[in-house]
Amino acid sequence: MHPRPAIDVGDRLGEGPHWDDRTGELIWVDITGGRIHTWSPPNAAVRTESVDGEVSAVIPRADRPGRVLAAGHRLLLREGDTERVLATVEDDLPENRFNDCKCDPQGRLWAGTMSKTRAHGTAALYRLTPGAEIERVVASTTLSNGLGWSPSGDTMYFVDSTTQRLDAFDFDGTTGDISDRRTLAEIDPDDGLPDGLTVDAEGGIWLCLFGGATIRRYGSDGTLEASIPLPTTNPTSPVFAGPDLRTLYITTARHRLTETQLAHEPVAGAVLTLDPGVQGLPGNRFAG
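User: That's the sequence. What structure does it adopt?
Assistant: Structure tokens below.
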């Protein structure tokens, strides 16, 4: 496994990669740059769309055109030139915003918020079930990040970064309920901040360590199975992609790097790629 840059658009805070297997395209965002990128790996050109303010996630719909955007305090449904608000949260907390968002296998949207000042316990993890109001499911988080589901769909993984943990819940796909929160792995702060994650078809959990220049693979029991050094300090989130889901793409950030660090890390802000030696799981779409 030799990580290398796949494409470099100089993201300040690249995040939220999603592989759309219908179009054969990788979608990701530059949160603080307010940009949405779409790229078909066989081609060199990246299509970039600018939005007002911060955008932290973009997820395609399941059966109809359009995408869900997480922008600031709002979840938006954009279809062509039209846009409507699906939900608004925490608009009384100006230093908070949405962060990582993913859909479960049934198409519900799970959307975490974060405090940009890391004010303890002021954020949350929300669930948006199609046709229903948004619900706060996990309260008192600080920096909601990685989300994922086991291949069988009965376990949900979640990272609240400042806890320095990778957590798991029992997951009921029928109801969307979660229970029995437990710690799978603890990350030493000296090794980096746990950030985005994805799950492979064997149940391995791939976790980026922001500030640690590393991506790790944990077993479903929390055992550390691999630790792969990366050529930039701030990896943010991984996704399996390609027609066979055997290519791993990793978004990265220039965010929080000094000028000296940037001079030594020319690929900071690029999307990295590596051959993980295992197949991934398809990305879930929003069923609303």
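The CA atoms of residues 177 and 214 lie 32 Å apart.
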